[in-house]
Amino acid sequence: MNDIRNDVRNDVRSASRNLIGDALHRSVRRNPGKEALRFQARSWSYARLDAAANRVANQLLGLGLQSGDRVAAYGRNSDAYVILWLGCVRAGLIHVPINYALIDSELRYIVEQSGARALFCDTDIASHVQALGPTLACEWQGTLHGGDGAHDVLAWADTPGRDTAPALDIDEESIAQLLYTSGTTAAPKGAMMSHRALLAEYTSTLLATDIKPGDRSLASLPLYHSAQMHVFLMPQLLVGATTIIVPAPQAELCFELIAAEKITSFFAPPTVWISFLRHPAFGNSDLSSLEKGYYGASIMPVAVVQELAARLPALQLYNCYGQSEIAPLATVLRPEEHAERPASAGRPIFNVETRIVDTDMKDVPPGEMGEIVHRSPQLMSGYWNKPEETASTFADGWFRSGDVGYVDEAGYLYITDRIKDVIKTGGVLVSSRDVEEALYTHPAVAEVAVVALPDERWIEIVAAVVALKQDATASADELMAHAREHLAAFKVPKRIFFVEDMPRNASGKLLKRELRRIYSA
Q: Is residue 13 part of a domain?
């Protein structure tokens, strides 16, 4: 009798299991012949993608890897990159995406801190792995695509083999991915994202962002970054949409593909949208197929939102705010909300609860700035092998984001800064965003970043780094005078620097830490 009960219990558990691979398989059953992915000349139907993920999963396990082992992915956007990720989740392995710009000690740190037993990379950056030498604690090394075939993900995916998913006893709390933070102030931390957390985020995303089966999306931002992978690519796969992948958000290539492929959906951080608006080909490109434009990863200036809406009036805009530790989407400002609140990051999505608190974790009134905290099934399970950092990030059952913001009376969130980016000048706090918004209203300004620089008298001063529009001119004195028309005197930049290009990471996010380093010297 006990054996029968155990069999029934196992059958029920198996029938009701909900892992990322299960969710993808349901989409495959609905859309077997539809195009799921395309990269360069390679196209993958949903059925073919499903078989490829299973082949790669079985090959990974055939190496001797076991559920819970870590597999590092070190490469640019490609179909093989996606297939390795899907193979890992099918095999119960933990995927470790690594920024392909990292080299030397930064690359070694993530591989070794994660305890990765296998690493797959692009052939053109394999030399960075080889340079680490035989001391790198990683048992298997292979390529994502274009390798010799023995340990090449694309070769595995294309070779008929075991096309069924491995039979494994893993559950929703199993870790699917380690998402490493950027490490701006300390060593990077690996946020442990479970199947349950990511699936909760996919549900929230689908409800908040109107991703539909008929969407044709262009994925140009790095897939190692959680936004492109988990807010867009994965939800699109789960509903049966089509995604065309390119290695990077190169303006002319994106314009060409949007026109030729009738792309309806595109995501980019503000820096990329700004670069598109400033590109000479923007005004002459056919972008009429675009229906949904998503932005996030950093604060979008209101002036840029308004310019984008004016130049592409049919485009529905979505502001997406969050961070890796919450999988990563937390709030969304929908298209119908932009006209009234263009500076807002929107309201919490389906599976997220958000508060603004003071240093004692008490709620602050609407309009008053405080730290943004979240409670959600989307949250990470903690930082990999960093219990102290995990403990300091959670307080009273809430996740502390490290972002500063406020809510209005209707509950709409406004992001003002990262805590580390708030400027304390002469004992008074200044939000860098307030200063940036004021300078963006000057007609000559293409891009601006405001940072704190050390000062003997004021301890910190407000400094602005400005890139001007093509053929535009403006002096530092002119911009300071413009700022005085919009800001209190203590917020006006005391120093203004001009640059042609801002420093950015591979996902397009502007690196204020680099500006602080350059101009503090």
A: no
Give whole-number Cα distances, 345 to 83, 334, 507, in Å: 32, 9, 20
Question: Are 365 and 508 in a shared domain?
Answer: no
DSSP H/E element including 503: none
Distance in angstroms (rounded) separating the CA atoms of residues 492 and 10 = 66
Q: Which two tokens stand for residue 487?
A: 């800001």
Would you tell me how many other CB atoms lie within 10 Å of the CB of residue 358?
Answer: 12
User: Quick one: which of 331, 490, 350, 325 has its CA closest to 414?
Assistant: 331
Query: What tokens does 374 get?
Result: 């979240």
**Which residues are registered as beta bridge partners of 405?**
370, 415
Cβ(265)–Cβ(211) under 8 Å? yes
In which band, very low, low, confident or very high, does the pLDDT at 417 lie, cut at 50, 70 and 90? confident
What count of Cα atoms within 13 Å lies in the side-chain half-sphere of residue 128? Answer: 22
Q: Are 288 and 302 part of one and the same domain? A: yes
Domain identity same for 63 and 111: yes
- The C-alpha angle 105, 57, 7, rounded to 5 degrees, equals 125
User: pLDDT tens, 305-358?
Assistant: 999 999 999 999 999 999 999 999 999 999 999 999 999 999 999 999 999 999
CATH of the domain at 148: 3.40.50.980
Distance CA 391, CA 26 (A): 37
> Average per-residue pLDDT in the chain?
93
**What are the two backbone dihedrals, phi and then psi, of residue 387, each rounded to the nearest 5 degrees?**
-65, -35
Q: What b/e readout covers 393-414, taking b as 16+ CB neighbours within 10 angstroms?
A: beeeebbbbbbbbbbeeeebbb
3-state secondary structure of 418: strand
Regarding beta strands 413-418 and 70-74, do their DSSP bridges make them parallel or antiparallel, or are they unpaired?
A: unpaired
* Closest of 465, 36, 480, 422 to residue 243, by C-alpha: 36
Which tokens hold the place of 235?
């939800």
Q: Number of structural domains, the chain?
A: 3
DSSP characters for 372-437? EEEE-TTS-S-BTT-HHHHHHHEETTEEEEEEEEEE-TT--EEEEEEGGG-EEETTEEE-HHHHHH
Nearest to 34 by CA among 271, 294, 304, 237: 237
Contact between 237 and 205 under an 8 Å Cβ cutoff? The reply is no
Task: Provide the residue range defining the domain that includes 76.
Answer: 19-27+44-170
> What is the value of pTM for the model shown?
0.86
Within 10 angstroms of residue 159's Cβ, the number of other Cβ atoms is 12
Residues in contact with 143: Cβ distance below 8 Å, sequence separation at least 6, in sequence order: 120, 121, 122, 123, 126, 151, 152, 153
Q: How far is 413 from 406, CA to CA, in rounded Å?
A: 6
Q: Which residues pair with 415 in a beta bridge?
A: 405
The backbone torsions φ and ψ at residue 94, rounded to the nearest 5 degrees and listed phi first, read -100, 115
